[in-house]
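Here we describe the complex-level prediction in full. Unlike the single-chain runs in Section 2.1, the two entities below were treated as one system.
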Amino acid sequence: MKFTLDWLNDHLDTDASVDEISTTLTTVGLEVEGVENQGKRLEKFVIAQVVKAEPHPNSDHLNICKVDAGTGELIDVVCGAPNVVTGMKSVFAFPGTYIPGKDFELKGGVVIRGAPSNGMLCSAAELELSNDHDGIITLPDDAPIGTKYVDYAGINGVVFDISITPNRGDATGVYGVARDLAAFGIGTLKTTDMSPVPSKGPSPIAPLPHQFDADEPKAIRKFGGRYIRNVKNGPSPAWLQARLRAVGLRPINAIVDITNLVSLGWGRPLHAYDADKIVGAPALRNAKPGEQFDALDNKIYALDETMTVIADDLGALCLGGVMGGIRSGTTDETVNVFMECASWDPELIARTGRKTGIISDARYRLERGVDPALTEPGLELATRLVLELCGGEPMEPAMSGEDVFANTVVEFPFNEVKRLTGLTVEPFIATAILSKLGFEIEGRGEVVTVKVPSWRPDVTQKADLAEEVMRMVGVDNIPVEPLPRLNHVAQRMLTTIQNRRRIARRALASRGLDEAVTWSFISHDEAVRFGGGQETLQLANAIAADMTDMRPSLLPGLLAAARRNGNRGLADLALFEVGQVFLSDAPEGQHTYATGIRTGTAKLSGSGRHWDGKATPVGVFDAKADLAAVLDALGVDIEKVQLLAEPAPWSHPGRGGRIALGPKVTLGWFGELHPAWISELDHEGPISAFEIDLDALPEPKKKPTKTKPALDLSAQMPLSRDFAFVVDKAVTAAVILRAARGADKGLITDVNVFDVFEGAHVGEGKKSVAIAVTLQPKDKTLTDEEIDKVSAAIVGAVTKSTGGVLRA
Amino acid sequence: MSLDSQIDALRTELAAAIAAATDDASLDAVRVAALGKKGSVSALLASLGSMAPEERKSAGPAINGLKNEIAGLIEAANAALKGAALEARLKAETVDITLPLQPAPTAQGRIHPISQTLDEITAIFSDMGFSIAEGPDIETDYFNFTALNFPEGHPAREMHDTFFMKPGPDGVKKLLRTHTSPVQMRVMQLGNEKPAASYITPRMDPPIRVVIPGRTYRNDSDQTHTPMFHQVEGLVIDKSSHIGQLRWVLEEFLKAYFEVPNVTLRFRPSFFPFTEPSMEVDVQCDRSGSEVKIGEGSDWLEILGCGMVHPNVIRNAGLDPDVYQGFAWGMGIDRIAMLKYGMPDLRAFFDADQRWLDHYGFRPLDLPTLFGGLSQ
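The structure predicted for the assembly as a whole is:
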């Protein structure tokens, strides 16, 4: 919210400097976002007259102007504003002037489509005075040429811009701000005469009936209207125009300017109707579904039955508490005014505001809560101002409905301040602070009864009062006190899954993969492709078309990242992410996966062409190695997990697999990305990938640290024997290895495959697999007979389980 | 020819042959020709048998002397040949050690700044006796708003730009949590239900000290806002903790995190539905240069929000706010990472540009600890 220093001075008697006021505002919780000396910022802008404006021969929207800016010679200016006409007065910027609304310094001597231009005629938006950029500022004919615009418009003062938190409806007016400053002790609050203004007779408009069914939402609480006869409307006085302009509002006419003055000054929104444009007797009712409303912002809104309107025989005149309508707006010709000051249900105003998307000063205040005690006084204040500025005869107020008062009373132990904040505040000081803020304190001693003023509905309990005292003393005055330290060594801080994520990340990074963090949401097509896309995992209000579904896998995000990097010329890529995937919308549907991809030649040993050898493309075994490394880092014995030739849907069907623990638990998948997917997803191959479900890993047994099993080392030399088998192509290495290993579990310590080949000489549909078996004698050297016996057992076991033969 | 001249001639001949031998094979040929069974020296030795005893007395030592002499020469020549061969091999094996390494990804794997920052935060709070608590990203309206004292229809709800999920079969609309605070309620709430999944922190009894990191979501996007971001918040619940201690925790944390001897904080009363009193905190910094320097200068930068846990929230958890009290604070992990490490644009955090990751990422063994320091 913006207000000027002189506006604040209307409500606060103070000698405080601008700096002091600014610091205090922030200290009490009215954060200052900016303090600006507008006069200084806009001092280069002068009043000028457009002596001649004629269409630019090379443009359909530009005009070539001769401008008199009081320098004694006419200046050539090309102007694109639709409202520029010969003879008008406006605001002019010389070359070299900084244009705040455009954030640039104006250049001189430019040529626009062949015509020279040495300066600029400005809109209010270009001066950052309002959002009005429909055309250049139009000034009255008597505006003095060559004068500084800020002096003429009276916007040469200091402007504060503060941010109001949603609980402080009371501070949405300058008066409420002044009350906080006075309570802090930098001035005295000034009061305003809001006493009733005598009426000249009964109101020509009867109190507005509230036409609602019992079960309908009803936004109106109390409606006050006052008919003021025979006013003389027109431009408001210069001081009022200047004040509104300084805070970014456009002066309209005296009546509208008064409503804005009261709204911004006291936080009490009003609305003024031209009474002669009201047809029949106005009433309050909810809109009909789809009812059209032609609002003051020149937009047409379709209303619904939850929105309360003030309507006459022809339809909605005003969207209650949010925005007035065009049809009944006041103009310079308005003679009879119907002034509204009403109190509304904040929640329903907020809902209407949300639904229509209308952002207005009235909505801003009413949805935060406007003091219900101000309905009548606000109407009297408005009446008094109208009489002052426009004359006229006030008729009797037309009131209907009831205000809602919270009448909150809080039992307040003074030590609540100490308990919650650590701050020691003497009861008499706390009492003084609360009193200055309008709280009424009854009783004496350690616990008092506090009556909350009508303008502070946010204060409902003792913690709220502690905050009131705290903010007036200043949080920075609270003594810093250490949190009691542990009297023992810190306990373990991370849970198993938290630790696993951390270890998985560092294990993968140490294998050369970069950690990526990608969006939790992906496109619907990608979600479906990777096994997700359920309705309950779709966003109802996605921010973009490619961010609609919660990801079922980390692969889409990593593949998209690979594509982006590929487009930047980075084709050899190793990326991983450790993050959440969503298998359902239930809490247990959220799992943490560790997923990685390698593209191009980004292998563990290095990537790209190199003097030491040929770059080879990444493949299924790179993915398998990454996966095994993560499992090993997490303490899972890779020998104990099942390796199944059951590739994931994204995998090349012959180059991928699944790892599992038993029939129910899948730990992950690895493989080469399916060639069809590579082209469908717009990649250049090859890509290898793995996924590990960290939540599927078994919880370690919760035992204190155990001693490890004794290490049994043999003194004998191990020996190795090689065997080659010819088996069917479909026989997997795992079967051969398992059979060989099982041939003599006591003696055989390792079996490895050292050669695999196919060819005509091993037979059609066959392959040769050569294995090396390591034998570890226990106590004594093996005899030839013993070795022959083990060899025979190995051959027997392998041929039996594979149907193959020992290769001659 | 006398025996002596015969020995001399043989010595000369063999020495020349040994010297001429250039490899193992030719040297061995000389050895066989001289000392083999049918060798020339062996033949001389064999002739001793047919000599008269007198003659043998003088000829024996002379012939044996020749044999030993030749054997010695062969051994020396053998050693010299071996040395030369090793010399040649070493020479042949010499490589240009300035050749570049293969650009191995192992040299480039990097930890994302968000993970690194989270590990730094964890290290600091472990020293203050906190543990890490977590909850789900897809939340209910109750945990995200209602339980945290956001009244239905309050403008504060609207300020959160909430992402909603499409309603389920039961018509209930879940949402993406807009902050990590729902976990506060999950941790504090009474009841003995086991969490639905092992990653969800079970409820605990006061005293509670937890740090809650996680992904959060708001329907907002510009240079400083992304629809997904990371928050970390802290919660302390016991019977005595107050704002004076909150100030200490935050000051100590920020000093440790930014690795500066002093930080100056400015606390501004503010509003959050779930704390009362509520405050926003600015940190003093120097923004005059290209980077923000914490702990010096005369500018203020908003860094976090905090306050005493609202009595209504404590009540909603089933605890008595006249007995239990405590404070909470929250800040952006991404944001404090940007402040510490100087990334200019939040959006780049989620783009996975390899060049960005390699530049702003951290080495895998650069593990933040208090004993080894947060930064290498």
